[in-house]
Specification:
The complex is a heterodimer of chains A (497) and B (143). With 497 residues, chain A is an alpha/beta fold. Chain A contains ten helices and 27 strands. The chains are: A alpha/beta (497), B alpha/beta (143).
Chain lengths: 497, 143
């Protein structure tokens, strides 16, 4: 199957719309092998009748099957009804013999934010169930699910991106197509490829980039994305369509790390003491080399909590290193954290492994941010270190977490994620939003921890922590229930070669 | 007679979103003891058996108990000798209900899932009942 994927054409007046660029993109349709065209939104500049009429004239000439969804610009000034009049339903399912394309309007009228409400979420879920036998499953949304780099002031993803990401991965969606940020980007998470198109014909491009579009080829064993810019330059990324499912050769185990978060130590009922003490007993029996606490050590950054936390944390029989959450450093916590648990930036290394902490917490705020300066220092330092396994840990998540909205997502997650993937960092540990998850993006395994011992947790299996076993040839992530010690595998992946 | 479906999940849901997509394997010439060690290490009750990169069999902790320990046989015998060669599988498009029915009919608690003739995952009876467990836990752990 071959798809021409364009986005953000912004058809309208000359000050925005570069019609010559769109002509170059649509010239690809002369290739007889193309099966369909997908436009992932922002068809028009301002959703006005004039712009819709202009767009209609252009797209009426297309003879192959095509899907066009609205973006935020198309819904300006009540533009949705005009979209429907000219291009039909903004949501739906297109079915061919082998493929299904589920397309959903993610724009919220008169704002730039993206959202897929519960009704549309269920629509995608039901469509994925109904068409689960199709060998190619594609979802189209205007807004991005995975943070993208260089996105300027609006960095964040769809407000319920975590729920959608989980749905796409569980439903074995092959391809998710989006636009919106006018910057082409491709990520592969597990078996799903997330493709963001740049703008095909808006003069507003980012970081000196020029107009571009994607040509996507899906074959039995591979999925190839070619990003073509209007100057004729191309970038190609090719991915296998099925990831490795059977693991039997692990080599020797080289390191075991416990990964925990949101212990919430306090004298309030939000701190579950029994859970903490049981988890502690289990961790101390696990023969692990290191514990990493990804923040939320105390419920609030006050002295009595820190005193209590210190007595609890001293019971661990393995070294623990920490990175704070916002709640750890509010009130007097900024001073107390250092007094009781050491430096803000902590790390551990031996001859083979390196775990480097990153400070993402801001006091009196749940928001997370790394910043350019810290990011540069971090990656320079990681590059200088000669270790076969490099890991970074921080409180805020860098991929969206289910049931958690986007509030725990690092503000500059798009840029950070891109760098992590490009530098092939082996492992990233995070600890916001109390939902256990583990997934591989590019060559990097990203693991989030549930709350180990607070009432606020989001795992249907109860409070938990993670254990990560690093073998010579593989990495295995387990979720372990705090109360009972039950262990379940969250993921197994080959180590980077 | 139509029986009421359990209320904790829709039994007509495709099994695809419930499967464990990672399978732990053991080589066919490995000993039964090595297989048991792997089950302990990865906390799993079953392993796929591999020969030349292909899945040629399946072994559960129950097989080790019944076919080796209870019979007084030595655990250094190869896995190949006790593995189940005829794999019981369910297609990835099956519903939870289909899978439960196969489990009941064959009297098994682990079932391999295939898609286009490839094994792509596993579902265990435990996976399906685990979903219900948290309510019990919340009740027990009230402080």
């Amino acid at each position: 199957m071959r798809i021409l994927h364009i986005s953000d054409t912004h058809i309208g007046k000359k000050d925005h719309y570069n019609k010559e660029s769109l002509k170059i993109a649509l010239k690809e349709l002369e290739d007889d092998d193309l099966d369909m065209l997908i436009h992932s939104g922002d068809l028009t500049q301002d959703g006005s009748l004039k712009h819709y009429e202009k767009a209609k004239k252009i797209f009426d000439k297309i003879s192959i099957p095509h899907i066009i969804i609205p973006g935020n610009h198309d819904k300006r000034s009540g533009g949705l009804s005009l979209f429907k009049d000219h291009f039909g339903s903004p949501n739906g399912v297109f079915e061919s013999q082998k493929a299904v394309v589920i397309y959903v309007d993610s724009a919220v009228p008169d704002t730039d934010i993206g959202r897929v409400g519960m009704v549309k979420y269920d629509m995608i879920k039901e469509a994925l169930a109904e068409y689960c036998n199709k060998s190619i499953k594609i979802v189209v949304l205007h807004h991005h699910t995975v943070p993208i780099p260089k996105a300027g002031r609006e960095r964040n993803v769809l407000s319920n991106a975590g729920d959608l990401l989980e749905l796409f991965l569980k439903g074995d969606v092959d391809l998710v197509l989006s636009g919106h940020r006018h910057y082409p980007n491709v990520h592969r998470i597990e078996n799903t490829v997330f493709v963001n198109a740049g703008t095909a014909s808006d003069k507003k491009t980012r970081y000196g980039d020029i107009n571009s579009y994607n040509l996507i080829k899906i074959e039995k064993k591979t999925l190839t994305v070619r990003t073509k810019r209007i100057d004729g330059s191309k970038e190609k990324k090719c991915f296998p369509r099925k990831d490795k499912r059977v693991f039997y050769d692990f080599g020797d185990k080289i390191f075991r790390v416990v990964h925990t978060s949101n212990t919430f130590v306090s004298s309030s009922p939000k701190f579950l003491q029994t859970h903490f003490l049981n988890a502690l007993k289990i961790i101390n029996s696990l023969d692990c080399d290191l514990t990493i606490h990804c923040g939320g050590v105390v419920e609030e950054g006050i002295n009595q909590n820190y005193e209590l936390a210190k007595t609890y944390m001293e019971k661990f029989n393995v070294p623990i290193i920490y990175t704070p959450a916002g709640r750890d450093i509010n009130y007097l916590g900024y001073e107390l954290f250092k007094e009781y648990f050491g430096k803000m930036l902590q790390s551990y290394s031996n001859e083979e492994v390196l775990f480097r902490g990153v400070s993402s917490a801001q006091y009196d705020s749940p928001e997370g941010y790394i910043g350019e300066t810290q990011k540069e220092e971090l990656f320079n330092e990681l590059e200088d270190q000669n270790r076969s396994f490099k890991s970074v840990f921080l409180h805020h998540n860098i991929l969206p977490i289910p049931h958690a909205r986007e509030k725990g997502l690092l503000e500059d997650s798009g840029d950070f994620l891109r760098e992590i993937v490009n530098k092939r960092i082996d492992l990233v540990l995070t600890g916001t939003s109390s939902h256990p998850s583990a997934m591989k993006i590019g060559e990097t395994v990203v693991v989030n921890a549930n709350s180990m011992s607070s009432v606020y947790q989001r795992s249907r299996y109860g409070n938990s922590f993670n254990v990560i076993d690093i073998y010579e040839k593989a990495i295995v992530v387990y979720e372990i229930n705090s109360l009972w010690g039950n262990r379940k595998i969250l993921g197994v992946w080959d180590r980077n070669s | 007679m139509n029986k009421a479906a359990p209320n904790f999940y829709d039994v007509d849901m495709p099994i695809r979103s419930f499967i464990t997509k990672r399978l732990i394997g053991v080589r066919s010439k490995s000993s039964v003891q090595e297989a048991a060690k792997k089950m302990v290490e990865f906390n799993t009750g079953s392993l796929v058996v591999i020969e030349d990169e292909d899945i040629v069999g399946f072994i559960t902790d129950g097989d080790i108990k019944k076919k080796v320990v209870a019979e007084g046989l030595k655990t250094d015998m190869p896995v190949k000798e006790i593995m189940v060669k005829e794999l019981i599988t369910a297609d990835i498009s099956s519903t939870i209900k289909d899978v439960l029915e196969i489990m009941a009919e064959k009297n098994i608690q682990h079932i391999l899932i295939d898609e286009d003739d490839d094994i792509v995952g596993i579902v265990t009876f435990r996976d399906l009942i685990d979903i219900k467990r948290q309510k019990l836990e919340t009740y027990i752990s009230r402080e």
